[in-house]
Amino acid sequence: MGYLMDQKEQQNLFCFRKETSRLLLLCNTQLTLSVSEGDDNILSLSSVFQELAEICSQLENEKSNSPKLDDLHQKIQQSIKNGVMAFQFYDRLTQQISHIQKTMDQLSHLIKESENLVDESEWLSLRTHLKNSYSMESEHQIFDAIMEGKSKQQALEVYHKLKQFDDDIELF
């Protein structure tokens, strides 16, 4: 025979669904942002290395002690610096994906045990642990937006608005 849930059990199940949805949405939003930023940096990196290839070609065609040699050398050095900066996104992307994976693992563990589904302290503990694990401001911004009930698109808009004022490399 089927098991009929009472009203309290249905409310608790609703809470579980709401919390699961928010946390999964958080992961999805962070992954979307990470991939998007990765695409931008890959294009930048490709451009840098194309420029380096052109400069190397030019250097091969120059005679020794050419007055252009120093200028080309400076261009190569600057391009290399730009390339190194573009590669830094890998560290950031790896860290973000790692946080997403940990969140999903913790969420999976939490919902595995029936008694955890209705234990508000377990959900709050997961949120607190998750937020405390973040080392980048962008992760905190997205977390706060999603936990406030914003959609994925709204959370990304919040992030991009705040990023307009701070285009420096984010240290973590």
Topology overview:
Blueprint: H1 7-61, H2 67-112, H3 114-117, H4 120-133, H5 137-147, H6 152-164
Helix pairs in contact: 1-2, 1-5, 1-6, 2-4, 5-6
Please provide a written account of the structure.
This protein is mostly helical and 172 residues long. It has helices spanning 7-61, 67-112, 114-117, 120-133, 137-147, 152-164. The longest helix has 55 residues, at 7-61.
Shape: rod-shaped
N- to C-terminal distance: 55 Å
| Biggest sheet statistics | none
Total number of beta strands: 0
Number of helices: 6
Mean pLDDT, nearest integer? 78
Secondary structural class: mainly alpha
Radius of gyration: 24 Å
Q: Topology as H/E string?
A: HHHHHH
Beta-strand content bin: under 5%
Short précis:
With 172 residues, this protein is an all-alpha fold. It contains 6 helices and no strands. The chain is rod-shaped.
Key descriptive features of the protein:
172 residues, mainly alpha, 83% helix
